[in-house]
Design goal:
The chain is α+β, with helices and mostly antiparallel strands and 451 residues long. The chain contains 19 helices and 13 strands. It has three domains: 21-175, NADH Oxidase (3-Layer(aba) Sandwich); 196-332, no CATH class; 341-438, Nonspecific Lipid-transfer Protein, Chain A (2-Layer Sandwich), CATH 3.30.1050. The relative contact order is 0.09.
Length: 451
């Protein structure tokens, strides 16, 4: 079909006079648009900024013509987030996430009306679920917020705004125009290094030294999100009958999962956010009386009776009973699947258990013989792990096995010692170092085994 100027809409378009959008947007005008849409603060980052280099592919997929990333925040109500009543806390998170998405939607509409190409990815969920188990994210808001001068990440891995503290949610808008004045990152860290987040975390995911146990946080706090849901589905499928299901999953846990599915997923903790006193609008009570602050905000969270979800053979399985005799502990499965050796090895960085690595200084040359062979290195030193896709310079040992045997060992279907005895796995060098490195990672519960 050939387009002609006789069409009424085309004729109207030709007849209208339009002002071309400016080649460069004024930062003050752009800020005004975000504030009128409801943002509590915002900042602008050039897409070419080195701080965004790791997201170049994500940004290009979203908006190939993007020149600027707009980071913005919306505040949460602090006392609601500090409550020990999880439904109140989760409602505040979800309501603010809805607000963040509405703000982004309004701002993009205002920009489009000015002839500016703009796009707003989701602030949180949903993401690109069809990509599971590979990376599902559309964009990472935290590094953009840091580059936009909206705060810096604290010990607890949450961005702390210099005024609002960590009681904020983040989002990003991409536009196809440069901005007259780009932001600069904060020249100081709002984090007070008070370690209250360390004390508050029921699974000790946050280390005093700045380390972070991803698997501990993911397993407990996000129990009713994707990973925990998959594990729960397996419990349903594997139960022999209703009575067996009730033995596996207590009624309260079933109802809580139903609530998450019918409403929105519920965070199990996020206590690190609750107790954080950083930010000029927040820190007053903490500075004036630290003891009273702890008694009012931290102690009720520690005293709360609740179920703590942990991986078998994890640090949390060791520490939860020692710290919280009044809290129930339940072992669950690690549910992020690995469909290839590369995602499996990356997963090891997420499941590494620092307590179990105490005093260990060892490196392993891993050979997956039916994958090329694939050579990799696993080094444990100073209670940290490094994974590389090449042999370490001076490994204590070399472990050779098949891809399936490697999976079976970590899933608990085969013990490493038995695999060595049968020749399914071969160790050259210091055998004890291989077993010590293996012990730094949790045993993934075998399907069909009762929790």
């Amino acid at each position: 079909m050939r387009l002609t100027d006789d069409h009424p809409d085309i004729a109207r378009y030709r007849a209208e006079t339009r002002a071309a959008p400016p080649a460069t947007l004024e930062a003050d005008d752009l800020r005004r648009i975000l504030e009128e849409a409801g943002a509590d603060d915002c900042g602008f980052v050039e897409v070419a900024d080195p701080a965004l280099a790791g997201q170049a592919g994500l940004i290009k997929a979203l908006l190939p013509s993007a020149k600027t990333a707009i980071g913005f925040v919306c505040r949460m109500n602090r006392e609601t987030v500090r409550s020990t009543v999880r439904s109140a806390v989760n409602q505040e998170f979800h309501q603010t996430y809805d607000e963040v998405n509405i703000v982004a939607h309004k701002a993009v509409r205002a920009l489009e009306d000015r002839g500016i190409t703009a796009l707003n990815p989701a602030a949180a969920f949903p993401m690109e679920a069809q990509s599971f188990p590979a990376n599902m994210q559309t964009i990472s808001h935290k590094p953009i917020a840091e580059a936009a001068g909206l705060g810096r990440m604290g010990l607890h891995r949450n961005v702390i705004h210099p005024r609002f503290g960590n009681f904020i949610l983040l989002s990003t808008i991409l536009i196809d125009r440069p901005v007259s004045n780009y932001a600069k990152p904060l020249d100081y860290a709002p984090c007070l290094d008070c370690k209250l987040c360390v004390a508050a975390c029921p699974v000790e995911a946050i280390g005093h030294d700045g380390s972070f146990n991803f698997s501990a946080c993911y397993t407990h706090n996000y129990r009713e999100f994707l990973g925990g849901f998959n594990d729960w589905i397996h419990e349903v499928v594997e139960a022999e009958d209703a009575e067996d299901y009730d033995r596996r999953v207590p009624p309260g846990e079933s109802v809580s999962m139903w609530q998450s599915l019918s409403f929105k997923p519920g965070y199990k903790a996020a206590y690190c956010v609750s107790v954080c006193p950083a930010g000029s609008d927040v820190l007053g009570p903490f500075i004036e009386d630290r003891s009273a602050y702890r008694q009012r905000i931290l102690d009720p969270l520690l005293a709360k009776s609740e179920t703590i979800f942990v991986l078998e053979d994890s640090d949390a399985e060791e520490t939860v009973p020692a710290r919280f005799k009044h809290k129930e502990m339940k072992r669950v499965d690690w549910s992020i699947t690995a469909d290839n050796p590369f995602s499996f090895l990356f997963g090891l960085t997420l499941t590494f258990q620092r307590r179990k690595a105490r005093g260990l200084d060892a490196s392993l040359h891993l050979v997956i013989e039916d994958q090329g062979p694939l050579h990799a290195g696993i080094t444990v030193r100073d209670r940290r792990v490094e994974i590389g896709f090449a042999p370490p310079e001076s490994p204590q040992a070399k472990l050779t096995l098949s891809w399936q045997m490697l999976l079976d060992i970590f899933e608990g279907k085969e013990e490493l010692a038995d695999a060595v005895k049968t020749g399914a796995a071969r160790i050259e060098g210091d055998e004890e170092s291989v077993f010590a490195i293996r012990a730094c990672f949790p045993r993934y519960k075998t399907r069909g085994e009762a929790a």
